[in-house]
Structure formats: structure tokens, C-alpha cells
Amino acid sequence: MAGYTPAIGRLVGILLYARRTTLAAVDGMSVAELDHLQDPSSNSIGALLAHIAVVERSYQILTFEERRLTSEEQAALEPALTLGDEGRRLLKGKPLEHYVRDLDDARRLTLEGLAARDDEWLERSLTAAPAMNAHFAWFHTAEDEINHRGQIRWLRKRLVTPLSHSES
Amino acid sequence: MAGYTPAIGRLVGILLYARRTTLAAVDGMSVAELDHLQDPSSNSIGALLAHIAVVERSYQILTFEERRLTSEEQAALEPALTLGDEGRRLLKGKPLEHYVRDLDDARRLTLEGLAARDDEWLERSLTAAPAMNAHFAWFHTAEDEINHRGQIRWLRKRLVTPLSHSES
User: Fold this and answer.
1) Burial A71-95 (b: 16+ CB within 10 A, else e)
2) Tens-of-pLDDT digits for all 168 residues of chain A?
3) Mutate to test the interface with B, among A44, A154, A155, A160 (most CBs of B within 10 A)
4) Closest residue by Cα to residue A163 from A18, A29, A34, A43
């Protein structure tokens, strides 16, 4: 992956692949579809997209700024980070473009941050979370996205207008 | 990761991490829970575990044996590979240990195969699938598992006996 040190480049490949499959899974969805709740304890697909974006933001702060979220940041990101009741109350009524813009904005900062760092940085213990290094943090970001993409595919298949190409 | 060349070692780390989280997600499940269908088009959690094991088998054949599945292998793996109606008909009535044994057996062969190969092999185009290299094949194996683990977590939360520690 040009522009990155080798191990960071592999991670970037994983992050970009995960994102491409997420965006493919939600392509063309309407506001009503993005807001749909499969059952009372479900998260909407829109809320899952918001979650993916704020997880990425929180790992930027943890790894690039080497700090925990401030209480203001925590409060702002909380509904999408934790999902559940607050997410169901607040994360709705937005078109796909809204979520995609948040995802794109987050991703741009991630790629800039990773391009400016190297593989030695990647393996160092994080100041703000010493049990973790940036490699795990960024792998986990992709892994959490893939986990939720699995849920998005499952949920979308149950909408009236399913994906035209079915993927398991 | 000791015993592997560097890039293979990173992949092995991802594979082991994915598996650990899958096994945590199904810990303690009964046959009835493993067989439960959330709705008529759902795959049971047991069927998803069977799927994860046969996906791993099929990528062993593709990358280590450098060939496509024979028609006999294809027929044998098909219900768990494709899931859907045949999976719902055939993949049931088994205790968790059955699925875990299949997963462990598949994983042992994967780790042996990867330990016997190197990073140069990892990047070579696959004879039986020239658009792909082994790196992508094994990343995709982990990625597909994580995708389905997301579904397993979602499905398990909706059983009468949910996971004691909730994970999104």
C-alpha cells in the first residue's frame, strides 16, 4: 500500500476493504430503511453506520492524540458508541449521504494519521491505554465494522426491498 | 507470532482473535439454542458455526492444495457453505462440542499449513484462483467469521437465555 510503512499499509488495506463492503451493504437505502427497527431492541442500520464512524473517531483520539475521550466528547459520541435506547431515540431521520459523509470524514483523518506514522509507532503500547497498541486498536476498528456489517446484511435482507445481490 | 513468517504471523493473530471471539459468543449454548431459527429465513447459530468451519476447509483446499473443491467435496460442504434451506434442513440436533470439534480440526490444519509456508508464498497468485492470493484468502476467512459472529451475537441476544455479558 503506497504511502504507508509495511504493517500500517496492511492495516489500511483491511480498513479500506471493510469500508468498501459496508458501503456496498447499504447502497441505495432510503431514510425509512435506514431508520427501520427489526424489533424493539434492534439498532437501525443508520445507527450502526453512525456507530462505525464514532468508533473510528474514538480510536483516532486514543491512538493519534494519545488520550481518552473528554467527558464532552464522550457525551457527544455516547448514543452512537453505546447504541441502545439513546441511539434509537436520536439516530434517525438522516439520509444515507449524512452517514456516508461522517464515515468519509472519519476515514480521511485516519488515513492521514496513519500515513504520518510508522510501524514502530504501530507496535508501541498506547499512553492512554497501555494494554493495547495502535495495531490492535486499528485492527479492532475494522473488526468491529465487519461485525456490524454482518448485522447490517442480516437486517437489510429482512426489509421489503432487499439487496439485489444477496450476500450472506 | 512465533513459528510463522512475519506477515503470516499477523494473519494468524487475526485468525486466532476472530476464533476466540466466536467461541466466546457461543459459550454454554444448548442444542435447542444452537438450532433456534429467529425467523423462517434465518440460519441457526449452529449452522453459522458449521459455515465458519467449512469456509476454512475450502480455503485450505484453495491455498494449500492449490485446487478447487471436487464435486464430491462441493456436495458435502454445500449445505454449510451456502446455508439457506438445505442448511436449515440438515444442520441441527448437534451439541456445541460437535461444532467446536469441527472448528478445532479445521483450525489445526490451517495453522500447520501456514507454519509450513512463508510470506513470499502468501503474496503469490493462487493457481486455482488467479485473481486472489493466499493473503486475501486467509484474511477473508477471518473476515467472514467476524461477519457471522456479528450475526451470532445479534441472534443470541434474542434467545430466552442471552449472553451474561452483553457485547454489541
Assistant:
1) eebeeebbbbbebeeebbeebbebe
2) 899 999 999 999 999 999 999 999 999 999 999 999 999 999 999 999 999 999 999 999 999 999 999 999 999 999 999 999 999 999 999 999 999 999 999 999 999 999 999 999 999 999 999 999 999 999 999 999 999 999 999 999 999 755 555 445
3) A154
4) A29
C-alpha to C-alpha distance for A102 and A45, rounded to whole angstroms: 14
pTM confidence score: 0.91
The partner residue sitting opposite B148, judged by closest CB among A41, A148, A150, is: A150
B71: burial class by Cβ within 10 Å (0-12, 13-18, 19+)? exposed
What the block records as the C-alpha cell of B45 is: 447459530
- Residues A18, A146 contacting (CB under 8 angstroms): yes
ipTM of model: 0.88
Asked if B44 and B36 count as a contact pair (C-beta separation under 8 A), the reply is: yes
> How far is residue B107 CA from its own chain's centroid?
9
Return the number of CB contacts < 8 Å for A and B. Answer: 49
Asked if B19 contacts B145 with a C-beta cutoff of 8 angstroms, the reply is: yes
